[in-house]
User: Which sequence fits this backbone?
């Protein structure tokens, strides 16, 4: 059921601050639901990024105990904790983590191995198979959930 009016935002961080600006079409009535409140011109007339704009900074996941000097130097004092460093992972690019978490298909062997990839629902393993691997499972009567614990 379509009972809402879509909203259109321009997102920009070129100034160093993240800014979201909402676009309103002049004919939009705030108290009425409209399924098409924008025109293609609204999108194409919006300011586009310049080619010479600086690239966004890379973001990193930094686990406790493995903080780099560029991070720890921002604090008035910092004590390295070896006990924490031993139990944490390495520094990872946020985009790598997001790519891994957004992955929606996995090879059959990876879904049969334990532990399962992070974010995989062990009760719905078949949804993570490629069409080819799904057909292989169907033909060979391979069960994915046989070793789920």
Assistant:
């Amino acid at each position: 059921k379509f009972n809402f009016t879509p909203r259109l935002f321009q997102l920009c961080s070129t100034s160093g601050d993240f800014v979201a600006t909402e676009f309103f079409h002049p004919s939009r009535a705030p108290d009425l639901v409209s399924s098409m409140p924008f025109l293609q011109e609204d999108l194409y007339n919006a300011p586009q990024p310049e080619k010479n704009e600086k690239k966004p900074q890379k973001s990193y996941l930094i686990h406790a105990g493995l903080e780099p000097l560029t991070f720890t130097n921002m604090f008035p004092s910092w004590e390295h904790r070896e006990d924490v460093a031993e139990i944490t992972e390495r520094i990872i690019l946020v985009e790598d983590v997001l790519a891994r978490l957004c992955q929606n298909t996995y090879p059959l062997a990876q879904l049969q191995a334990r532990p399962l990839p992070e974010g995989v629902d062990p009760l719905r393993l078949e949804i993570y198979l490629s069409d080819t691997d799904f057909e292989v499972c169907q033909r060979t009567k391979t069960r994915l959930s046989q070793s789920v614990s």
